[in-house]
């Protein structure tokens, strides 16, 4: 999933709960779709339903499972059943907890007041997804955080920027951070769990149109 690629922003539409939204995002040019397997989320989808959707998606689309404080055995079972491209993990996992997965690993990090970017130093993962810290919520907060933290985080690996992104601010966010990728959920919704087709298209088109300026060090990773 995270091999060499052209210098183009990686775009993920998260919180997919139905086939229509998934196929629309694919037609608009998304690189990845996210499925939330956290029952307390308004964007929760069962792994059975997710599997039905994934079977109807093109092979080139990355399918990412979002887990919150999930049991490792359960994660492995879902990965195999759905053939996920990557897992996105929200929780208290330490560096040693994220090794030996059979798929790509994205460590989700909630950024709030007092966030210390140095905590990322010891993690060996495929990417960090930086999201806004809000008590009781794991993704879909609709709120941004200080993007300077995301800029500094790039020293420790690929950064997927999340948290409060929308068609209105995506250009400013990408130009400021120059991340590996971006992730959006609530910012392109008509209601929790249901995407707004026009917003999805506008977000992807705007994100993909921004010139990227990756440095040579990032390209060689």
Q: In CATH's first tier, which class applies?
A: Alpha Beta
Largest sheet: 8 strands, parallel, barrel
Average pLDDT for all residues: 90
| Rough outline | globular
Per the CATH scheme, the topology name is TIM Barrel
Helical run tally: 7
Estimate nothing, just give the exact number of structural domains: 1
Q: For the largest sheet, list the strands in their spatial order.
A: 1-2-3-4-5-6-7-8
Query: Which structural class should the secondary elements be placed in?
Result: alpha/beta
CATH architecture: Alpha-Beta Barrel
Provide the helix percentage: 25-40%
SSE string:
EHEHEHEEEHEHEEEHH
User: Spans of 5+ residues with little confidence (pLDDT < 50)?
Assistant: 216-221
| Strand residue percentage | 15-25%
Distance between the termini: 13 Å
Radius of gyration: 16 Å
Model description:
The protein has 221 residues and is of the alpha/beta class. The chain has one domain: TIM Barrel (Alpha-Beta Barrel), CATH 3.20.20.70. 27% of the residues lie in helices and 21% in strands. The protein is built from seven helices and ten strands. The chain has helices spanning 19-28, 47-54, 72-82, 148-153, 170-177, 197-208, 216-220, and strands at residues 10-13, 32-36, 62-68, 86-90, 104-111, 127-132, 159-161, 181-184, 189-191, 194-195. Strands 1-2-3-4-5-6-7-8 form an eight-stranded parallel β-barrel, surrounded by four helices. It has a two-stranded antiparallel sheet with strand order 9-10. Helix 5 links the parallel strand 7 and strand 8 (181-184). The chain starts with 9 loop residues before the first strand and ends with a helix. The model is unreliable at 216-221 (pLDDT under 50).
């Amino acid at each position: 999933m995270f091999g060499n690629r052209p210098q183009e922003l990686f775009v993920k539409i998260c919180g997919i709960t139905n086939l229509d939204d998934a196929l629309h995002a694919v037609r608009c040019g998304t690189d990845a779709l996210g499925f939330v397997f956290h029952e307390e989320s308004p964007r929760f989808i069962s792994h059975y339903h997710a599997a039905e959707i994934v079977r109807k998606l093109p092979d080139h689309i990355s399918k990412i499972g979002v887990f919150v404080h999930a049991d490792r055995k359960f994660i492995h079972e879902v990965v195999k059943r759905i053939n996920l491209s990557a897992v996105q993990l929200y929780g208290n996992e330490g560096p040693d907890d994220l090794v030996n997965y059979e798929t790509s690993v994205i460590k989700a990090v909630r950024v709030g007041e007092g966030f210390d970017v140095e905590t990322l130093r010891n993690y060996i993962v495929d990417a960090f997804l930086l999201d806004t810290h809000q008590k009781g919520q794991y993704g879909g907060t609709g709120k941004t955080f200080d993007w300077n933290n995301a800029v500094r985080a790039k020293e420790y690996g690929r950064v997927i920027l999340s948290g409060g992104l929308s068609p209105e601010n995506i250009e400013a966010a990408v130009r400021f951070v120059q991340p590996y990728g971006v992730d959006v959920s609530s910012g392109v919704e008509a209601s929790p769990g249901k995407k707004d087709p026009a917003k999805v298209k506008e977000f992807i088109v705007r994100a993909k149109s921004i010139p990227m300026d990756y440095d040579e060090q990032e390209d060689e990773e």
